[in-house]
Amino acid sequence: MASWLIVGTVPTETFSLYLGAFHLENWEIHFDGDKRGGVVEVQRGTPTLLAAACLTLESLGCKPPMALLCGDTGQGKGSREIYAKLVQCLPEQTFSGLTFHYLYPDVDWHNRIWLALERLAPRPQLVCDAGYMYVAKMSGYAQGYDLFTPDLGELTFLADAQAPHPFYTRGFVHAEDHDVAALARKAYQDSNAAEWLLVKGETDHLVHQGKIVANIQEPNLPVLEAIGGTGDLLTGVVTGLLASGRPMEQACKEAARLCRQAGQLANPTPASQITEMLARLPELVRSLG
Fold first, then answer.
1. Every domain of the chain and the residues it spans
2. In the chain, which residue ranges form alpha helices assigned H by DSSP?
3. Class level of CATH domain 3-286
């Protein structure tokens, strides 16, 4: 089976462009074959997604994912290096899927990547979260993606056809920001959503083509909303399950339940770290069979 590629940034300007394998050790991401000797600590963001996907696949006895990363603190330089590398490597390497995460939104570079993806046969599965989900919507190609993993605020952004960024969603849309069904319908009506949405929140909602097909709310742990990285954890677990070959609906439902169960086993407080939940993942994933 071809590797799955996770694409994102780390919040430091000193981390230079890297494409290749990685492994998890003592809650640090180590980069295989990288002579720089650098590591990235798992706290939140793309490192948490990498750790969750890696643990999920290893627990299932599957090939670990690859990573395409660069440092970027919000200026966009590292993200543009990633974009350029991806346009270059897509015709040269075979990936079963790609998960796009924290990247500086750049519509021009997104569209170059989209053209490269369209030339692939078969086209890999495509998952988006965070900044790349924003640019996928802004580009007008959102409906070509397989899965977006927004929180409620990001779903509101997808539902607002005119908003260029979640900061600029219009007030009348915010008035409905707890009506997931209505927001999902708006997002699909304007072709601003992927085929599937896994809406993260106190209740996780799985949406297919504008219709809610599952609500996952047990175990119900409101304290998780205060812990940084829980959304990255969920996107990482669903990435791992998809990379293992599971169908989309099954992968999304299992991922939502696993993350809640990991939270329950970790017995968290608002001061808990995301690594406490990650530590519970292997036993839960292995129980899937």
1. 3-286
2. 45-59, 77-89, 107-118, 130-139, 152-159, 171-174, 180-189, 230-243, 248-266, 274-278, 281-286
3. alpha beta
